[in-house]
Here is the input.
Amino acid sequence: MTQMISCQSETDKTVLTHYMSLPQDKDTVMVEYIWVDIDGDGLRCKCKIFDFVPEKASGQNSRYSCAQTMKLVEDSHPWFGIEQEYLILDANGHPFGWPKNGFPRPQGPYHFSVGYNKAFGRDIVEAHFKACIYAGVKICGGNAEALPAQWEFQIGPCEGVEAGDQLWIARYILFRLTEDFRVTITLDPKPIPGDWNGSGGHTNFSTAAMREEGGLKFIEEAIEKLRNKHDEHIVLYDPNEGKDNARRLIGSHETSNIKDFCAGVENRLASVRIPRQVANEKKGYLEDRRPSSNCDPYIVCDLLCKTCILD
Ligand code: ADP
Ligand code: MN
Ligand code: MN
Ligand code: MN
Here is the structure.
């Protein structure tokens, strides 16, 4: 694996606590501006210090388009819950906790695991939960994933454009934490080639009609619309026009094949899954398993509404 960062010296992170405790004039605010980088995967930020609380600023293009669509469909009350999978790497870009020369034992024991030899990096995961809750981010859970050092968190359910806002900020907080923990995070959808799971951005979606009694009918209708637009969705479900997802959606490792659309109850090899409980209750939501871990959630949510509600 290639050398990414070479750390010759490190600061003692606890020293910052002292500076953070210095009294600050009550009218002074430090405002962190966060924006999505052009490649759709990265985030950038800069700090401005004001003696007033500034107006909200938003300029992201995909957010603008998503917000416009959400205005058109607001009577349908679209809800989203997004599952963000990611892999933790060490400072050298090597999967965190993996043996330095070789691979850990094959997949099987890691998914939802607990224990020193199975779950690598839980301190980072729990710090992320706490920081998100503190920041008011609508994080609703998380778990260790199938690939060792791979984790997932979920946000939602959120209505409209807010889903994208919540996910981008949760990603920002995760990347920001890596500065303290001296690890890195990759959102690449197939970070380790071969017999190792990739990372997804499963997007759970419902409208008011789907959530009401007998809503399964509307879920099934939406699935047929998604089937007809499969290729258009694939092109926009990763930042690289489907090329990133082509490495992940291979019809195994809990993914569907990128070329075929298929749907089913509790089917983790499907493009779109109807969760077991939703099939039983005949109402709820669908899970689109195709978006990649590095997807732009504004684009995914925008497209789901265009296809399932506006078409
Ligand atoms: P999985 O079984 O696929 O791992 P998770 O428990 O990880 O599912 O995630 C479920 C997601 O579904 C959460 O993000 C949650 O907010 C979201 N969700 C739950 N109910 C709804 C709903 N009615 N509409 C949209 N999203 C929902
Ligand atoms: Mn999940
Ligand atoms: Mn998962
Ligand atoms: Mn899922």
